[in-house]
Predict the structure.
Amino acid sequence: MAGDAALTVYGNLTKDPELRFTQGGAAVVRFTVAMTPRFQDREGQWKEGDPLFMSCTAWRQLAENVATLNKGDRVVVAGSLRQRSWETDDGQKRSMTELTAEDVGLSVKFHPAESKRAEKSAPKPEDDPWASKPASDEPPF
């Protein structure tokens, strides 16, 4: 990410993320985050600004984790901006800016979250070379 335009956005997923796999087997997910700024006008009334829709892409394990999220989930996405350009079949040039995610998290601003860590299973004593062996009558050599 060094030298890239780093950006962090937060907002709501506009639809369920779409998980796909490249021919090489790498997971890639595309999703869109919608952000609508709110501000107070001169009379102190809250107003909503123009919404911004940010196209995002995540790769590999991050992609598989993002694919478990749902439309409407509030997320925080950190990554780098990329400009993609292509030409359509009829010769028109197109381009778009997207955020390549380095990290994605659920926002807990408006709802609490419960952190669950995967339980680690303890190694079996016979699989652990450093486990102390029961004392025997035979010498160790």
User: Anything to note?
Assistant: The beta strands are 5-13, 18-21, 27-35, 38-40, 46-48, 52-59, 74-87, 93-106.
